[in-house]
Amino acid sequence: MAKFQRPSSLVTLVTLLVVALLLHPTSSTSRKTLNHHHHRRNHFPNGIRVMLRHVDSGKNLTKLERVQHGIKRGKSRLQRLNAMVLAASSSTTTPRQTPNGESLEAPVHAGNGEYLMELAIGTPPESYPAVLDTGSDLIWTQCKPCTQCYKQPTPIFDPSKSSSFSKVSCGSNLCIALPSSSCSDGCEYVYSYGDYSTSQGVLATETFTFGENKVHNIGFGCGEDNEGDGFEQASGLVGLGRGPLSLVSQLQAPRFSYCLTPTDDTKKSVLLLGSSENVKGAKEVTTPLLKNPLQPSFYYLSLEGISVGETLLDIEKSTFEVGEDGSGGVIIDSGTTITYLQSKAFDAFKKEFVSQMNLPLDKSSSTGLDVCFSVPSETSQVEVPNVVFHFKGGDLQLPADNYMIGDSNLGVACLAIGSASGMSIFGNVQQQNILVNHDLEKETISFIPTSCDQL
């Protein structure tokens, strides 16, 4: 159990509760087609560094309020993810029409997200804030002429003004890799995101700029019909999934890493493509990445169990395994705010966690989180159970700030872990101040605790 102090000053109290929750647990258990990727791998020997910012950055919100916003977004994303599983297991697709009246079949994808990456597209380059999504593959932005476009923070990309824009041929590898496409005026695509948000247009190549680095002939979707309400803060999306359409696959990056600063931090997070940072003195936990043939874009983790305090939860091993129908399993996802555990696993987690907390449950349901505790104003110390995720290959003990969130105005301390049906998701709150390294050659993922704002 871990103790934290409650200061006497109200101003200090609010700051500390909102920012840190006073939690520190102790130890416990010119224009070409796309057949050209071979030269990219060593093009940037030191990798590409991209800064990230949270979708709610710059807003006057407490940490709890940011998490609450994320939970609302996360419920929509959960529906999308579950729809993907159902679609894959039943071979269900959503028909759409091309501008020429041809029918396209559009499997659903994750979409939306919590972090934005800054890049530029075209020659000359135009700024392009994009949703970062490790749960899907396609890179796309809204393009002129738009038949249907949502309001975005930057001017809509005009391909006629870029000297490096080129449509992709229907016989190209990436056109073939699209889950749904047709051929009329080039390779036409439609990408659906489960809640009926879509991007539809033509596949093309362009020059993308990441900081000082330019990468030519990146395949992306030039979306002329984009519908949905989950992308307003961005001009498109960059998929970092495991499929051939994703940015990491097109770069042939042997690895990529990200490090997310706390949700309430004003400092930016970082994404490293093709490289990782060396963190001295940190305990690294490395676990195999699993594959689900029915959901090949997702990064599945080898989770074997969870401990609360000194208690290893009684959870059936099959709970975190991928089923024959592609259901279940545990994915790591930068686009989901909190961690969601399969309902039976969550019930066991909740029961044990509540039993070890010396605080009454808050039953007001005012926060939107599944488990909250009332924190009396006269309380000077609170003990918080340690939480350890047991992965194949090592145990990851989470900092308390990565699973408990407090708010002095409401007088609550809440668990940033929730219940879900189907698959479990390791969310971004649990990943904060941890360098998360995806080694795509070794097919492993590593967790390295560090201060992300120092990288």
Automatic annotation (TrEMBL):
Catalytic residues of the enzyme: D133, D333
Keyword Aminoacyl-tRNA synthetase: no
Residue ranges of every copy of the Peptidase A1 domain listed in the record: 115-448
One Gene Ontology molecular-function label: aspartic-type endopeptidase activity
GO biological process: proteolysis
A Pfam family it matches: TAXi_C
Signal peptide: 1-28
Keywords: Aspartyl protease, Glycoprotein, Hydrolase, Protease, Signal
Gene3D superfamilies: Acid Proteases (2.40.70.10)
Similarity comment: family membership: Belongs to the peptidase A1 family.
Name of this protein: Peptidase A1 domain-containing protein
Species this protein is from: Flemingia macrophylla
Source organism phylogeny: Eukaryota, Viridiplantae, Streptophyta, Embryophyta, Tracheophyta
